[in-house]
Write a structure and sequence with these properties.
The complex is a heterodimer of chains A (366) and B (210). By secondary structure, chain A is α/β, with parallel strands linked by helices. Chain A is built from 12 helices and 14 strands. Chain A starts with 9 loop residues before the first helix and ends with a strand. Chain B is an alpha/beta fold. Chain B has a 6-stranded mixed β-sheet with strand order 2-3-1-4-11-5. Chain B has a 5-stranded mixed β-sheet with strand order 8-7-9-6-10. In chain B, a hairpin with a 4-residue loop joins strand 2 and strand 3. The interface between A and B is medium-sized, with 22 and 23 residues.
């Protein structure tokens, strides 16, 4: 059966393109049931995008939840093999859709496409996932940006400065505001020197091409440039250069995720015209450890519901041709006219008179 | 909203002061000074568009991307917690968020403290940080009346000069946080209009130094 791509919505086109992209790089499809035991989510509530769940009691009395997330299920069902597993999924999840402040949102069935790379992952695996995240955004729109950061590099900076755990937590809470004054105040009240406080505040407010931002971090905090985390980030950025996606990569030291779950590289993807992140992910070895798995993992999800905003006005007309027939019209003539229009590749609506609410490009009266 | 840089300004005195900062930085829009009922003002040369909105709505316009930039008080940012970048302290609209009470107020820690305020989140966050039980009474105006009529023990409100408090026999008990106007940016606009926003920021910083 031939599929007319023009008839597909932005989300449907994107889903097909993403599946094809992930399969090209050897990622295998992963399918799962629509619900899990509620307990799985309670233990890792802060890992979820939204902690509102739809729950129900199973026939045997167990409290279940419709899946609000895919990653937790994949990890739960993961075997103990050390080889690297590369999986992608295309699943519906059930959670509230509100993203802006003050909006709780209502429960929605949301299509989520994403991938996970789990096992003994190394710099290549990290770079490949970053490259696929960048390519995923490119598949959807030519005007897209992938922000990256590395939590390990940030933690190295904090340890260089001798920042307390309490202050580190506060910095992580304020990191995504790009408010240099807030970061400076936290550092000063933690006993840092004015020079160190200014340096960290300027790094956290930084944003730009990876090379430039990393140069600045390296210059301000010379001690961390030789550490493993910094070298891993440098190597990943070099790989992205080879993959030809450097132009769309930005380094944002203020991009942080929950450090109880994430470590290493984190990422967020943006598309022009959508006022929120459409892609989010990172390395989450800590989540695996919390779930009793001694492995590493990195992955990301693309939130297909956010792509609604990209729908163009291609639905200006409901049909190309309206055939409006009268009581006296010969049914066979009407049928022939309709078939001729369809044969031309047009969409056609046949109606007695003019139907209400149908937008047509041209009309033929019979 | 095209390739214009869209800026939401808060209606009123603060917005006028904020506009003069943009004007000084070279981002003027003469239409705005004309006494008209227009809501949107465009400078075609600079590709910039200003619009007036209710002060408490600025962060909503910016967070949802209808405006790329906006000027909002730190009080609004703390109360609504919008997911935006806070790029610059503009140093205008300076005041403080404070706890105030009647002059003879004595805090009985055995009792739940009744707090009247417009700023329920800031109030809850503050009292939670000091471990005090409170009963928040949300009011929309004339907050100073609440302790006078024994509706509340204290109020949490913005204090600028303190004149209104003094005239009603109230005084500041504790200062919670200093407030001033901030230049905020939509996170996605910041990425896709990075050069334009950085140029504007640099010009404003330069104008503020002069």
């Amino acid at each position: 059966m031939l599929v007319d791509e023009k008839k597909l919505s932005t989300e449907e086109r994107a889903t097909l393109a993403l599946r094809s992209l992930y399969e090209k790089y050897g990622y295998l499809p992963y399918k799962m049931t629509k619900f899990e035991e509620y307990d799985l989510y309670v233990k890792n509530r802060d890992f979820l995008v939204s902690d509102n769940l739809i729950t129900f009691t199973d026939t045997n009395g167990r409290l279940m939840a419709l899946k609000p997330d895919v990653t937790l299920s994949i990890i739960k069902n993961l075997g103990s093999t050390g080889s690297v597993k590369k999986l992608y999924y295309n699943e519906n999840v059930y959670r509230t859709s509100g993203w802006a402040s003050g909006t709780e949102g209502t429960f929605r069935e949301i299509m989520q496409v994403g991938l996970e790379c789990i096992g003994d992952i190394d710099t290549y695996s990290v770079s490949e996932v970053l490259m696929l995240a960048a390519m995923s955004l490119k598949c959807i729109s030519g005007e897209s940006i992938l922000d990256i950061s590395h939590l390990g590099v940030l933690e190295d900076v904090f340890s260089c400065m001798g920042i307390s755990a309490e202050a580190e937590k506060k910095i992580f809470e304020h990191a995504d505001e790009k408010s240099a004054s807030s970061i400076r105040e936290i550092c000063l009240s933690d006993g840092c020197t004015g020079e160190d406080a200014d340096a960290l505040a300027s790094v956290m407010a930084e944003y730009g091409r990876p090379g430039e931002v990393m140069d600045k971090i390296g210059k301000l905090f010379g001690g961390i440039a030789g550490r493993d985390n910094f070298r891993e980030l440098e190597a990943a950025v070099a790989c992205l250069g080879s993959a030809g996606v450097t132009d769309m990569i930005r380094m944002d030291p203020g991009l942080v995720e929950d450090i109880r779950y994430y470590n290493g590289v984190v990422m967020k993807g943006y598309i022009k015209g959508v006022p929120q992140a459409v892609l989010s992910g990172g390395q989450y070895d800590k989540l695996l450890r919390r779930m009793g798995k001694d492995q590493k993992a990195i992955g990301f999800a693309v939130y297909m519901d956010t792509l609604e905003r990209l729908r163009d006005a291609s639905g200006k007309y409901d049909v190309d041709l309206l055939i409006s027939y009268s009581d006296r019209a010969d049914p066979e003539t009407v049928m022939k006219e309709a078939a001729a229009a369809v044969a031309k590749g047009w969409t056609v609506r046949v109606a007695k008179g003019i139907p209400e609410g149908v937008r047509y490009r041209t009309m033929k009266e019979i | 909203m095209g390739d214009y840089l869209n800026i939401a300004l808060p209606k009123g005195r603060l917005g006028e002061k904020a506009y003069s900062i943009f004007e000084k930085a070279g981002y003027d829009c003469c239409e705005i000074c004309e006494n008209s009922r227009k809501l949107i003002f465009v400078n075609e040369t600079k590709k910039i568009r200003f619009f007036w909105v209710k002060p408490s709505d600025v962060s909503i316009y910016v967070e949802r991307g209808a405006a790329d930039l906006g000027v909002a008080g730190k009080d609004i940012i703390l109360e609504y917690g919008p997911d935006v970048y806070e790029l610059l302290d503009l140093g205008i609209g300076k005041c403080r968020m404070a706890v105030a009470a009647k002059k003879d107020f004595h805090d009985d820690v055995e009792k739940t403290l009744r707090v009247a305020t417009k700023f329920t989140k800031i109030t809850r966050d503050y009292y939670s940080s000091i471990g005090r039980n409170i009963d928040v009474i949300k009011l929309n105006g004339s907050i100073e009346l609440a302790p006078i009529l024994d509706l509340s023990d204290v109020i949490v409100d913005i204090v600028e000069t303190g004149t209104t408090l003094r005239e009603n026999d109230l005084e500041v008990v504790t200062e919670i946080i200093p407030i001033s106007a901030r230049l905020i940016s939509n996170k996605v606009s910041y990425k896709f209009k990075f050069d334009e926003i950085t140029e504007l920021l640099d010009s404003i910083r330069k104008g503020m130094k002069d």
